[in-house]
Design goal:
The complex is a heterodimer of chains A (109) and B (119). Chain A is an all-beta fold and 109 residues long. Chain A is built from no helices and ten strands. Chain B has 119 residues and is mostly beta strands. Classes of the chains: A mainly beta (109), B mainly beta (119). Chain A binds chain B through residues 4, 6, 32-33, 35, 42-47, 50, 56, 88, 90, 92, 95-103, and chain B through 4, 35, 37, 43-47, 50, 58, 60-62, 94, 99, 102-112.
C-alpha cells in the first residue's frame, strides 16, 4: 500500500500570502495518478488538481500543482479568504486502489 | 450538474450492519463507476470500494470481508452495507463518482452523512 504523508498538518497564513503544501509518497507515484482536493466544513471535497498539475474545471489559476516521483506540492499563490480549508492529496494505485493523505488544514493567521 | 445525496441511519449499534444509500441526480447510474469513501474523526479519507452498474465491485482489502455494495438502476441509487460494525467504523460516509475517462480519482462527491457506532 502506498502511504501519502502531508505536511504541515496545519498551516497558518494571512490572506494575500503564498501557501505551499506538501504530499510525500512512500513509493514512487506516477504524476498522472496524483490529485488534490479541497474540503470546507460540512461540504463535499472538491477536485482541485488532477495529473499532479492540471487544474480541474472552474479552479482559479492561483492554484497550481507540481512534483513527481514521491514528492508533490500544491501551491496557492495569493490566498483568498475562501481558500482557508482542508486539503487532501490522493493517489491511484494497485491495492487498495485509492489512498489519501491525512490532510493539511490551512487556517487564517 | 451531477449531485449525490447519502441517506441512512445516523446511529448503529456495535456488531450490527450499517446500511447507506446514495441517490444520484444529473447522471445515469448505468454509465459510471460509483464509490463509497469514509472519513473518521481526525483522519484522512479512506476508500471503501466501488461498484459498476453491472454489479462489478472492487473493495478495499482492509474492509472486504465486511462490505457489500449494490446498485438499483431503477431508482438511480447505489448502496453500502458494512457488517459487524465497531466504534472504529464511526465516520462521515461519502458517496462519489469515479472519474469516467481514467478512473484515477473522484470528480463528484456527496456531502456525506455521519454514522456513529454506539450502544
Amino acid at each position: 500500500e502506498i502511504v501519502l504523508t502531508q505536511s504541515p498538518g496545519t498551516l497558518s497564513l494571512s490572506p494575500g500570502e503564498r501557501a505551499t503544501l506538501s504530499c510525500r509518497a512512500s513509493q514512487s507515484v506516477s504524476s498522472s495518478y496524483l490529485v488534490w482536493y479541497q474540503q470546507k466544513p460540512g461540504q463535499a471535497p472538491r477536485l482541485l488538481i488532477y495529473g499532479a498539475s492540471s487544474r480541474a474545471t472552474g479552479i482559479a489559476d492561483r492554484f497550481s500543482g507540481s512534483g513527481s516521483g514521491t514528492d508533490f506540492t500544491l501551491t496557492i499563490s495569493r490566498l483568498e479568504p475562501e481558500d482557508f480549508a482542508v486539503y487532501y492529496c490522493q493517489q491511484y494505485g494497485s491495492s487498495p486502489m485509492y489512498t489519501f493523505g491525512q490532510g493539511t488544514r490551512l487556517e487564517i493567521k | 450538474q451531477v449531485q449525490l445525496q447519502e441517506s441512512g441511519p445516523g446511529l448503529v449499534k456495535p456488531s450490527e450492519t450499517l446500511s447507506l444509500t446514495c441517490t444520484v441526480s444529473g447522471a445515469s447510474i448505468s454509465s459510471f463507476y460509483w464509490s463509497w469513501i469514509r472519513q473518521s474523526p481526525g483522519k484522512g479519507p479512506e476508500w471503501i470500494g466501488y461498484i459498476y452498474y453491472s454489479g462489478r465491485t472492487n473493495y478495499n482489502p482492509s474492509l472486504r470481508s465486511r462490505v457489500t455494495m449494490s446498485v438499483d438502476s431503477s431508482e438511480n441509487q447505489f448502496s453500502l452495507r458494512l457488517s459487524s460494525v465497531t466504534a472504529a467504523d464511526t465516520a462521515v460516509y461519502h458517496c462519489a463518482r469515479v472519474e469516467p475517462n481514467t478512473a484515477w480519482y473522484f470528480d463528484y462527491w456527496g456531502r456525506g452523512t455521519l454514522v456513529t457506532v454506539s450502544s
